Protein: CDP-diacylglycerol--glycerol-3-phosphate 3-phosphatidyltransferase
Amino acid sequence: MSRDAIWTVPNILTIVRILLTPLFVVAYVGENFNLAWILFLVAGLTDAFDGFLARVWDQRTQLGAVLDPLADKALLVTSFICLAAKGWIPFWFAVLVVSRDLIIVGGLAVLNFLGVDVRNRIRPIWISKFNTAAQIVLVVAVMIHRTFGIGYGYMLGTLVAVTALSTTLSGIAYVRRGFQLFSEQAEG
Structure:
């Protein structure tokens, strides 16, 4: 498969995920929470499925490498802002999630500006993949809890704590990697 291909199934699924984000917001703001959590769940499933298909069908593309993390960030950041605005998750937690992503994206932009080939030198790490999964599970759990009144006991608080920890650790790991690349660029 050409690395320049655009209309692959994984890329189409990623574009669908991007398009589901504003639909999620419209449903959420309109307090159609059943539809909102279903849209979020479908978007989350497309995330898992597009990556799987890209590997299995050897349809990894440059466009997909850019769009996939963008789609993830758009959906998750938007979701955490919506949940915090309703008071369904702690405000500090939404600030943590959004700040981490802004710091990473800003750092990548600076490194790219300095001539570092960030696309080939920074790869997703296990803690970041875990963090994304934890964030998706948390949003779905909160939406189901608030929509259907299902009580989870201490599980939601634990999930917030685990997700906050993974958000912090993955952010630190990426910042450390960014400083390494910056140092290498300065020395070279």
User: Anything to note?
Assistant: The first helix runs from residue 9 to 29. The mean pLDDT is 85.
